[in-house]
Amino acid sequence: MKKPSLNRARVKKLRRITNQINKLAPQMAALSDGQLKDYTRKFRQRLQDGESLDSLLVEAFAVVREADRRVLGMFPYDVQVMGGIALYQGNIVEMKTGEGKTLTATMPLYLNGLSGDGAMLVTPNEYLAYRDGTEMGQVYEWLGLTCRVGFAAPGAKEFTTKDKRAAYGADITYTTNAALGFDYLFDNLATNVKNKFMRDFNYAIVDEADAVLLDSAVMPLVISGSPRVQSTWLGVADEFIYTLKQDEEYKYDKEDHAVWFTDSGHDVMSRYFAVKDPFNGHHTELLRATNLALKAHRLFERDKDYVVDQDNQVELLDTANGRVMEGMKLQAGQHQAIEMKEQAEISPDTRTLASITYQNLFRKFKKLSGMTGTGKVAEKEFIETYYDRVIQIPTNRPVARVDLPDKVYTTLPEKLMASLQEVLRLHKIGRPILLVTANVEVSEIYSELLLQQKIPHSVLNAKNAAKEAAIIAEAGQKGAVTVATTMAGRGTDIKLGPGVKELGGLAVIGTEKMASKRIDQQLQGRAGRQGDPGTSQFYVSLEDHVVIKHGARWLQKYYKKRRRQMDPAHPKEITTAKFRRAIAQAQEASDSADRQQRRKSLEMDESAQIQRQLIIGERNRLLYGEKVDLDLPAILRAEFTRFFTTHPQLTVDQLVRYILDNVTYQYFDRPTTLALADQATVVNYLMKIAQAELARKQASFANAEEENDFYRIVVLKAIDECWVEEIDGLTQLQTIVASRSTAQRNPLYEYHKEALRSYNTMRHDLYHRITRHLLMSTIDINKKGEKQIYFV
Ligand code: ADP
């Protein structure tokens, strides 16, 4: 834990700068609109003359602040200015709900936007990105900067490459993390400068930084392409699993949600499939298939993780809300393994064309900052992953909300009853209530209970962001009862209706302890905005998910002993502090398990990340470079040498075959007199034929530019083909390494070693493909009279 005094010192510094900005306020207020707007031009001039953004901060913030007042009718409070400075400096900024993060962001976005290199606001919620982008956009445009939203407006059909270029080329861009991630991947698949639309990532503010940068970071973004050849092992691997016994041939760790084969499991595998050593490098397909099948059987539960629909297809469920995730597929063959287990229809296993984790996506920004209601508890992880500090900004008004201690019960029915009684009590006096559940199922149970009590209420489960934002905005009215899942209506402010303050404000009731302390804090933060009164309280039972999964053993023992003595109609609260402490510890354990999971995925992606950097660098050099500056003769020579060394007993037939497949169609010799055992002779012979073929090609180009284009396309195509294989292989590799940890090896080390080896193989493969495409492609004139390349 950071010492609070350190945060205090940081805040004090922000305060000092804010005072300077305050001093300029009257002066800015006295300017005409025209004079105020003219600052943008002046700032840009000063930047051009060599001044730094830092040196403009005080004035620029004063200018936006005044513009915010004139355009939006809101003048940023001092704490918002402080938050804005911290964001400009590239920190994660913790500001409580209702403190006005949207308006806060206008100041750092304007200042960074002045550079013209791009400033982005990224949020997980499309609805909010669009709303904030259009509302705040007015301020930037008024001041003479361009601002765009990074995806199609609601109702608009298309978002073309041109639109994207305008969006990413704007001074300021509002977008979602998903749109940004997929655009990044697509942009790097472009084979032509005309199809590229992104520039280097400069500055970003990530809204709900903990959700985007930490929680969703384990699920990589994936673009899938052409189907892979179906593994022939799928069916047998599935049958194999039925012959195994848990704890003997494989182990299952419920807490870590992991399964793996034991050494004895690998022995059985060797015998079952009649292979000597599954780890000798020749049986990766087998290892992959058996691991996927084992996971399908033990880690994925029907009707919890997936359903089999009436068309006999496996559909994934979102475990947070139980809804079917349309079109989502598990990667790298896992989906097919589950389909096999269920004897459902087997869907094509698609190749991973491109993939990246959010962590690595956001690390590409030169300067990254974030806003969150609850980031401080995760500061260490932010620093480790993004090198960002977390600064807590004080609230505009003192927080008057009271966070009441947890209410603990032995059984779930008792807890339900007790929390319902509390709702009835509060409802009677007219206080608005926000009942927050961990998932859709529970929210439906509460809705049913409320219905039985004839209490009118709204239920939100993150289905329609726009509609839910409107409903939740009403949740602060007198007598309102709102049941919502943790995600529903997030980011929308709950203002209190008339007369509610006097009653004690909004009451937030958490119906269980959530998987992370941060989520608890977010829920609490929904009450008590801007110094409003309010309360929060969590109802917990020993049957709650976190308690079962991460709680101390004695809690379970206690539960088993007592549960039968409990009467749901008369809930008995457990008031001993020991229980509350144990439950807090269970939540900490849950947080720490998630952290480990995230770290693992980050480490796994490290190899792909390094390779991705190299490949993208190479691609861009080719795309944007004047001339293809590859040493083609050297590549040819390397490829021919590889051919020679991989054919130790080279025959005339092999050589002829190779030439016809890889070098030229125009070859009619049989080099019977050639010294086939001599490397230099063979390589030189091939070089001569290749050069003749190249000379033939050169004759068909009208000019040097055309020739260069040809080289570029050939090399790009080869790179892309190899890279797709590589990234697909890496994705699969991750599923295999898990099984190796039992063979007393470090899985991560194995993974990186394997990844490096496959990268080196890819390099050879690349030379081979370049050679083949370069020499064997034909150039023709099509009907429209354009030159066209036909690849082999
Ligand atoms: P957060 O995202 O921090 O929870 P929002 O950005 O949704 O908060 O803002 C909360 C509410 O406060 C909004 O209705 C906004 O219009 C209002 N608000 C923010 N800053 C100011 C301000 N300086 N003056 C007046 N109203 C403000």
Automatic annotation (TrEMBL):
The record's listing under InterPro entries reads:
Helicase_ATP-bd, Helicase_C-like, P-loop_NTPase, SecA, SecA2, SecA_DEAD, SecA_motor_DEAD, SecA_preprotein_X-link_dom
- Tell me a Gene Ontology molecular-function term this record carries: protein-exporting ATPase activity
Residues recorded as binding ATP, renumbered to this chain, are 80, 98-102, 493
Question: What is any one of the record's Gene Ontology cellular component terms?
Answer: cytosol
- Membrane topology category: Peripheral membrane protein
Annotated SecA family profile domain residues: 1-571
* Residue ranges, compositional bias (Basic and acidic residues): 592-603
Instruction: Please classify the protein's predominant subcellular localization into one broad category.
Output: membrane
Question: A GO BP term, please?
Answer: intracellular protein transmembrane transport
Name the segments for region: Disordered. Answer: 585-604
Helicase ATP-binding domain location: 82-245
Output the Pfam families linked to this UniProt entry: P-loop_SecA (PF21090), SecA_DEAD (PF07517), SecA_PP_bind (PF01043), SecA_SW (PF07516)
Query: Which reaction equations make up its catalytic activity?
Result: ATP + H2O + cellular proteinSide 1 = ADP + phosphate + cellular proteinSide 2
Positions of the Helicase C-terminal domain: 411-575
Kindly state the subunit structure of this protein.
Answer: Monomer and homodimer. Part of the essential Sec protein translocation apparatus which comprises SecA, SecYEG and auxiliary proteins SecDF. Other proteins may also be involved.
Q: Which family does it belong to?
A: Belongs to the SecA family.
Q: What does this protein do?
A: Part of the Sec protein translocase complex. Interacts with the SecYEG preprotein conducting channel. Has a central role in coupling the hydrolysis of ATP to the transfer of proteins into and across the cell membrane, serving as an ATP-driven molecular motor driving the stepwise translocation of polypeptide chains across the membrane.
Q: Which HAMAP family match?
A: SecA (MF_01382)
The protein's name is Protein translocase subunit SecA
